[in-house]
Amino acid sequence: MKLLAADIGNTNVTIGLFEDDRLARSWRAITRANATPDEVAAMLTGLLALDAHRLDELDAVALASVVPPLTETWERLVIERIGVEPTIIDAASLDGTLIIRIDRPSEAGADRLANALAARVEFGGPAIVVDLGTSTNFDLVDADGAYIGGAIAPGMGLSLEALVGRASKLPRIELRRPPSAIGTNTVHAMQSGTVLGYIGLVSGLLTALRGELLERSPSGARVTVIATGGYTHQPWLHDVPGIDAVEPDLTLRGIRYAWRAVRDREGAMAPGVER
What we know:
CATH class of the largest domain: Alpha Beta
CATH topology of the largest domain: Nucleotidyltransferase, domain 5
CATH architecture of the largest domain: 2-Layer Sandwich
Shape: globular
CATH superfamily of the largest domain: ATPase, nucleotide binding domain
Number of strands: 10
Helix content: 25-40%
Low-confidence stretches: none
Oligomer: single chain
Number of helices: 6
Mean pLDDT: 91
Number of domains: 2
Structural class: alpha/beta
């Protein structure tokens, strides 16, 4: 069984090819919200070809998208070029698989739900997933394995773009830890504010969220913190206290868990299948 899992985000599309339970390969591409089905097909064909794979090898496709125009585009592509009906991961498709204890479940991003499901399956609750991407998402799973919400903050890259875009004298800089918190030149001062400030943001929110999650947890419970997303390769991540695991492919694995749950549920409901 070859499953293509796609995490369609605002900045990047992350694509994973699963062979049965194993993530065989993953790729990242820039998101183009106005791309046509043919353009997406060309991109996908090219990425698969990098590792000698083809569209016609795929048995199933699962999509977790936070870009509505691209959701429809990918659906058309999958149906027309691959010949299968894609599984769309959202709160509705996860009904009965993941308990969602937030005010409006339909508003929860598909990537956040996939992260929560993967955290519950692989680590159990209570847990916090820190997804470091365009935005920095903190997704919480309680001791019962339910998704209970979290926090959303601007991502590091987004914050830097806003700073440079609104201050004409500030240059574009490399996102790396400066030699000291006190910047003695413009670049180091910006790196201090951006990188060290971001570490402080993540650390501060983790402290607050962990405390509230423990208040809801049984006595003696321990919160597991998992980092995922596009910035997990950055060396400064090791300076964020309290992160227990770094799992760059957690979202893709969550999409696969969701797809499998939907497939199993649909199989159990098929005519002639014992329930």
